[in-house]
Amino acid sequence: MLDTASLILALPELVLTAAGLILLMIAAYAGDTSAKMIGWLGVVALGVAAWALCPAWTQGGDAFGGLYRGDAFGAFAKGLIYLAAAVCILIAPRFFEAGGANGARAIRAEYPILILFACVGMGMMVSAGDMLTLYVGLELNSLAAYVLASFMRQDGRSAEAGLKYFVLGALASGILLYGISLLYGFTGSTSYAGIAAAMADGLSHGETFGLVFVLAGLAFKISAVPFHMWTPDVYEGAPTPVTAFFASAPKVAAMGLTVRVAMEAMGSAASSWQQIVVFVALASILFGAVAAIGQTNIKRLLAYSSINNVGFALIGLAAGTAEGVAAVMSYLAIYVVMTIGSFLCVLQMRDSQGNPVEDIASLAGLSQSRKGLAAAFAIFMFSLAGIPPLMGFWAKFLVFDAAVAAGMTGLAAFGIAMSVVGAFYYLKIIKTVYFDEPAAEYAPAGSRMESALIAVSAALIVLGYLFNPLLDTMSAAAAAALH
């Protein structure tokens, strides 16, 4: 019998699946000449999928016998995912048409289709109510991501990034699957509710091992220390629009998945997983702050920045409270805007021949030749560093406040101290832009769309406090769905 209620809750994934299959057929017959049209149609599909989130946000409930959960938490995360994915589709054609990183034309119609299928997987990840749904969504996202990482086949760095991502991703998937099998073996269930009920009686040794393996597999997906090793190489080697995608949408999906698993499946064993999350948060903050200091490539620096930001977001999860979850969701929303804006600025880094430049030293003197771009760089770097009154400060304040309210004052104090250390490499970029001797000038902007997206992102970072009531309300509603 057709379960209409379940289909309505899962409508965003159904829309994206249908759109992906239709666009795949168009690409097969029309070829790469249809790439731009397919990209715009993909953005429209993401918009329709975002509209289809309304039933989950307003009503919510379980679907397909508890395998899938349509609620405000999943809707909030999917909204961020679809927004980031749409931007990454829009900014790709110019990068690939200009030759990417090696002067070879690389625009392909499959790019937006892969992103749509990745979004289907990410949607399943944040709405999973069962470990099997979790794994299917995770692999669907990962398979598309492996191809995207190596999308520029002519570029050796891109091929290397795809291979590293695939090998280490397969290892992480194996670790996660082993953890799921242990939890099933010792709890007798793969559903989040069943696992939580079994853990409420106390953790056995087998359940403890399963919990550790599952969290280890998820830590890889959010690129948290000590499972971060793939991040700098993949971010540097992948095409810049793909790197922007990896740093935003999959990060939100993986963090959302981790939060849901921790609070719903393992909520009754919070005292056990909190220790793990605290360690991972501390290690990610410390490593991300220190390892980025010596970087000379802007994309590698932003990779370590993402590791650092994951650590801060995990502070909210470590609190284990509804306020902590709300802080994580607010942090992710602000992080997406900062990250997308930063990579849009990186896309503007092109030499006089139009070839991409990634060396931080090439930013020297940018304030004299491209004042608007220099100001945007300063806004995003100051915000990532957590300098008030920009929104990056508010994101960190929320997770620190949640940690203090939960009695984790030491964790919050460590995070605040490391924010000062991490600010060094962000300020280094601003110093290069405004105070170093000018380097060779960049090519003109060349894209009104990129300039407009940079301006909108920068405005949101500066004026975002005007939207704080709305963001707080939505984050609180998302957190309440898990409690």
From TrEMBL:
* Keywords tagged on the record: Cell membrane, Membrane, NAD, Oxidoreductase, Quinone, Translocase, Transmembrane, Transmembrane helix, Transport, Ubiquinone
Q: Enumerate the HAMAP family for this protein.
A: NDH1_NuoN_1
Gene symbol? nuoN
EC assignment: 7.1.1.-
**Positions in coiled-coil regions:** none
Q: Per its record, what are the GO molecular function terms?
A: NADH dehydrogenase (quinone) (non-electrogenic) activity; NADH dehydrogenase (ubiquinone) activity; quinone binding
- InterPro entries in the record, alphabetically? NADH-Q_OxRdtase_suN/2, ND/Mrp_TM
> In its UniProt entry, what is this protein called?
NADH-quinone oxidoreductase subunit N
Enzyme's top EC category? translocase
Report the protein's function.
Answer: NDH-1 shuttles electrons from NADH, via FMN and iron-sulfur (Fe-S) centers, to quinones in the respiratory chain. The immediate electron acceptor for the enzyme in this species is believed to be ubiquinone. Couples the redox reaction to proton translocation (for every two electrons transferred, four hydrogen ions are translocated across the cytoplasmic membrane), and thus conserves the redox energy in a proton gradient.
Listed under GO cellular component are: endomembrane system; plasma membrane
- Which protein family is it in? Belongs to the complex I subunit 2 family.
Q: Which reaction does it catalyse?
A: a quinone + NADH + 5 H(+)(in) = a quinol + NAD(+) + 4 H(+)(out)
Q: What sections of the protein cross the membrane?
A: 6-30, 37-59, 79-96, 108-126, 163-184, 209-230, 275-294, 301-322, 328-347, 372-391, 403-427, 448-467
Q: How does it assemble?
A: NDH-1 is composed of 14 different subunits. Subunits NuoA, H, J, K, L, M, N constitute the membrane sector of the complex.
Q: Where is the NADH:quinone oxidoreductase/Mrp antiporter transmembrane domain?
A: 128-420
Question: According to Swiss-Prot or TrEMBL, what is its membrane topology?
Answer: Multi-pass membrane protein
Q: Which GO terms describe its biological process?
A: ATP synthesis coupled electron transport
Q: What is its main location?
A: membrane
Where, subcellularly, is it found?
Answer: Cell membrane; Endomembrane system; Membrane
